[in-house]
Every structure is written in C-alpha cells, then in structure tokens.
Design brief:
It is a single chain. With about 130 residues, the protein is mainly alpha-helical. Among the domains are: about 1-50, no CATH class; about 55-90, no CATH class. It has helices at about 1-15, 25-35, 40-50, 55-70, 75-80, 85-90, 105-120. Helix 1 (about 1-15) runs antiparallel to helix 3 (about 40-50). This is Phage protein. InterPro entries: DUF5361 (IPR035286).
C-alpha cells in the first residue's frame, strides 16, 4: 500500500484511526490498521482501480432505472425518443476529446475555413 500511494494511506489512517505518523507504530500494527480500512478508502480504491465508490454507482444505477420507468410513461417514451441519459455511463465513461485545430497564421485559417465550407456545399450540409 505504501508503494502504491503513501499519501492516500496516510490520509486514510489519519481519517479512520487518527494516526498521523504511522512510522512511529510497529509495522505489523500498521498492516492490521491498513487491512481494516473501508473498501471505499482512498488507498483501497486506488489499488483496485476504482474511480467511483460502489455505493455511488449503485445509487446512480437506481436513479437511472427510476428515470427509465418514468420516461416510459411519457409520450416520448412511447415513441422511443429523448431517452434519458445514464448517470452511470456519464460517471464511468472517459471524456471525449474534442477535435481542435491550431493555425499559425490568419491565412492558414482562411484556407481551412474555405475547405470546410466547400465540403459542406458538396455534401449539402450533411
């Protein structure tokens, strides 16, 4: 645990057991305290690769299901449009990278703009 993230372990030990300097304690006692930390402690979440606590994911999943049930009873639900966005998906998915262009001069920008507008005309805006 120390090798993974010593700062997270120090925070968790201080928060849970009020141990502010674990190095003053015997190693086996620190090990016992470390194993006894909650599953949603900083260090255990980091070691398991979790970014969001299980409790939060379960609550978001419940909210998603209730939202779907309510949506199904609306006109949009009967027609299959405007499906509510999933909280779980928004919390667990990686943010999409925006495609950005950087230009060294105004002339480069004008050329790129003309090319984009020409492509739009050819495709009728689609």
């Amino acid at each position: 645990m120390i090798k993974t993230d010593e700062d997270a372990l120090i925070c968790d030990l201080a928060e849970t057991y009020h141990i502010y300097n674990y190095r003053q304690l015997p190693a086996d006692l620190v090990a016992v305290f470390s194993v006894g930390l909650r599953d949603d402690s900083r260090i255990k979440m980091k070691m398991s690769g979790q970014k969001i606590p299980l409790k939060t994911l379960l609550l978001a999943s419940i909210a998603d299901r209730v939202g779907i049930l309510a949506w199904q009873n609306t006109k949009d639900g009967h027609e299959g449009r405007n499906v509510p966005k999933s909280l779980v998906e928004s919390m667990t998915s990686e943010p999409k990278e925006r495609e950005e262009s950087v230009f060294d001069s105004g002339e480069e920008f004008k050329k790129a703009r003309a090319r984009i507008l020409k492509d739009l005309e050819v495709n009728n805006g689609n």
